[in-house]
Design brief:
single chain, alpha/beta, Rossmann fold, six-stranded mixed sheet, four-stranded antiparallel sheet
Length: 261
């Protein structure tokens, strides 16, 4: 992988990122460059800090009182943890879809509209709702039931609604934390297809335990594991095809082939 093609292709970069919960260092020395308009997967065994790192990219860890970070996370050449940076603005530009679908107990329409209004959207709301539901491949399924409670949708539909809700605030980056782990195989493939359709327009970073999903859906893959001190660390990072077919580190090969983790 060419690391010298300049930062114009980089959406987010972590530099010497260390994350602590109290005195425990959960992850250490993460240096990761996320490419613009690509899908990047983070894989690795449970407890190696994948989700902790993902949540640090839009400051979701701020909600955990004992959590603190050292190092930098750069988004458009700005350290998002600098004192003058508003974390609410960070989360508007770097959206997130969680492991389990979490629609608001409101109508399908209001799930999209509420976040957009909260972020100051002044345009045509009907058009925004339709365009984001279309982008999330959900419009044809719900266009006649927009006033229905979102909780009545299937799990896969709820997850696509949550993705549409994230798109409605017009982010540049979408973080996805195990977005298909609670879904059946058909719904999982819909989410993967959707990621591929969105990638030309958004930078997508996904944490997944499903190595087949990472191999199918991502352009780049980072493999994390735990060091002897139980801190998560990145072993290697590169184009997905290389990581899965020609890993440079034996630990990556052992994990991918099922000999470890």
């Amino acid at each position: 992988m060419d690391e010298n093609n300049g930062n114009q292709d980089i959406a987010i970069e972590s530099r010497d990122l260390n994350i602590y919960y109290g005195s425990f260092r959960a992850v250490k020395n993460i240096n990761l460059k996320i490419r613009k308009n690509k899908i990047t997967a983070i894989i690795g065994p449970s407890g190696c800090g994948k989700s902790t790192v993902l949540r640090s990219f839009n400051r979701m860890n701020d909600f955990i009182p004992a959590c603190r970070i050292e190092g930098e996370i750069l988004f458009q050449d700005q350290n998002i943890y600098a004192p003058e940076v508003d974390p609410v603005q960070v989360r508007r530009r770097i959206g997130m879809v969680f492991q389990r679908p979490n629609p608001f107990p409101k109508s399908i329409y209001d799930n999209i509209a509420w976040g957009a209004r909260a972020n100051g959207f002044q345009g045509n709301m009907d058009e925004l709702v339709e365009s984001t539901l279309r982008a999330a491949a959900l419009w044809d399924e719900v266009k006649d039931i927009l006033k229905q409670n979102a909780l009545s949708l299937s799990g896969g539909q709820q997850q696509r609604l949550c993705l549409a809700r994230a798109l409605a605030i017009q982010p540049e980056v979408i973080l996805m934390d195990e977005p298909a782990s609670a879904l059946d195989p058909i719904a999982t493939l819909k989410i993967e297809d959707l990621m591929r359709e969105l990638a030309p327009h958004y930078t997508i970073l996904i944490v997944t335990h499903n190595m087949q999903q990472a191999a199918r859906a991502s352009d780049y893959t980072a493999f994390f594991t735990m060091d002897d001190d139980r801190a998560g660390m990145m072993v290697e990072y590169g184009p997905t095809e290389e990581i899965f077919t020609r890993p440079r580190d034996r630990r990556t090969e052992d994990y991918i082939t099922g000999r470890f983790g």
